[in-house]
Amino acid sequence: MKRIWMYLKMYKKECVLAPLFKMLEATFELFVPLVVSAIIDVGIAGADKGYIVKMCFVLVALAIIGLTSSITAQYFAAKAAVGCSTQMRHHLFKHIQSLSFTEMDTIGTSTLITRMTSDINQVQNGVNLVLRLFLRSPFIVFGAMIMAFTIDVKAALVFVGAIPILAVIVFGIMLSTRPLYKKVQAGLDKILGITRENLTGVRVIRAFNKENEEVYRFKKSNEELNHLQKFVGKISGLMNPLTYAVVNISIILLIWIGAVRVNSGTLTQGQVVALYNYMSQILVELIKLANLVINITKALACANRIDGVFAVKSSMADGKLDISETGKNTQVPAVEFKNVCLKYAGGGEEALTDINFSVMPGETVGVIGGTGSGKSSLVNMIARFYDATEGEVKINGRNVKEYNIESLRNHVAVVMQKALLFKGSIRDNMKWGKKDATDDEIMEALDISQSREFVEKKDGKLDAFIDQGGKNLSGGQRQRLTIARAMVRKPDILILDDSASALDFATDAALRKAIRGMKSSPTLFIVSQRAASLMHADKIIVLDDGKVAGIGTHDELLAGCEVYQEIYYSQFKKEAM
Ligand SMILES: Nc1ncnc2c1ncn2[C@@H]1O[C@H](COP(=O)(O)OP(=O)(O)OP(=O)(O)O)[C@@H](O)[C@H]1O
Predict the structure, then answer these.
(1) What spacing in Å lies between the alpha carbon of 412 and ligand 1's midpoint?
(2) Quick check: ipTM above 0.90?
(3) Transmembrane segments in this chain: where (predicted)?
(4) Ligand 1 binding pocket includes 373 (Cβ within 6 Å)
(5) Superfamily covering domain 323-576
(6) What is the pTM of this model?
(7) Whole-angstrom Cα distance, residue 201 to residue 257?
(8) How does pLDDT run across 313-351, given as a tens digit for each residue?
């Protein structure tokens, strides 16, 4: 609530004008039954055609003024609601960007997307409805009752009896359905999550013939939601018959009392019709009010969930040191791990235990080990995607935590296992590496990553269009372009995290040779399960179940490291086959 108000404060004028125009509309609406009553009592009763036409014009004028007020109110309410949600979305996105991978892992991508999209939309709807209805509906309810009293106190007593009964029914149903609506919202979130997972993983699902299982999984969740919605719908469905029953009984009473009083000459026929219209207006507004309260409840629940994300603070404090101020001394290791341990949030075993090694500037380091042995975890700590839970990761002799994260990540380029490109031209994608990269710099990076040939064959060359995620490229082409994107930056430390796995051996070898041939060759980490990709490295780190099983050159490890021997001979036997 506090947060919504924080954003709404920027739209104070709109927040005042929207309800005011709605009240203006309501005021004119309250006059309509009186005009209709006058048409009956004066125009029709007196057969005065001129009067009837005149009053019809008054009705049209009231409708036009009401409509104009309503549109104006809608404009201001929408401006405030959309403005509030835009600001909130912007800040939430910025906040999410500031979170470290640890928090992102804990919250989950799917949840974050739901907060950014449907939750903020719900808040926007809630704000819009509140601005339009929170004054208007009570105003009409009480206004109609007062108008009824001005017509006839005795007949208006029917209103005094009916309104509380109607309020109890409407709000009673609303209160009983409120927790159920929360469950519906959770069910919707689940469906959204399944849909998102399925759409992003559609290729894998088809490759594994999992369509039927996925359709079944979706159907199950959808049916659960359907049952819940039907149940809530049935309770909410009681609202109309019950309220209409009360209103109709009240109307019968009104007409009965009215008829008696018309006979006695205390009331006119038109006044009875006016009383009837006021009763109808009250009913409509009470139903609107109930919907408003349901929407407020949903909006507040969503706002709380959004607040929950805002409440998560990054566990990664930014340092002050600019990395360009270090690294002048070539005798200091470019990367050093000192007794490093890593345990991911959410418990479980340590992913890395007591890792110690150092790498001098310009050296090539291979990281090898079985699946889940901790290779990616190890290199991810160099660019501070995760912080060591124990020990120290140092770059140029200083703890990575001392560096300003932006300068650190400009210095360390990571090519991730999953080759991900973004919608846009090849040039746009390359400029992710360096904003102001010239075409020459891009071509140089394409040369190193062995991508020039296929890029030059594409229509438009650097302007060739890449679909979202790089779907219109082959796996190997995607990998080469992600490597080129990292090379454009000319990083001091380059990490290839199993990022050449889709390349053939000759291209893989040509890539490594080109990197080593660069004028200022980076300190290079090659993570791979293929011994052939890193056997020429200056140093190979062999990981086994999160621990270092051996560090040394290929020859040293082949002579003395059992895990390395196992990996190497298993592959060379395989490759020889
Ligand atoms: N974000 C994470 N949250 C929790 N646990 C994780 C996370 N990332 C990795 N792990 C766990 O840490 C261990 C090491 O994983 P890591 O990805 O570093 O292995 P790897 O050697 O790179 O494997 P692969 O070769 O299959 O990519 C695994 O047990 C994995 O389940």
Answers:
(1) 21
(2) yes
(3) 20-40, 52-78, 129-149, 155-175, 238-259
(4) yes
(5) P-loop containing nucleotide triphosphate hydrolases (3.40.50.300)
(6) 0.74
(7) 68
(8) 888 888 888 888 886 777 889 999 999 999 988 767 889
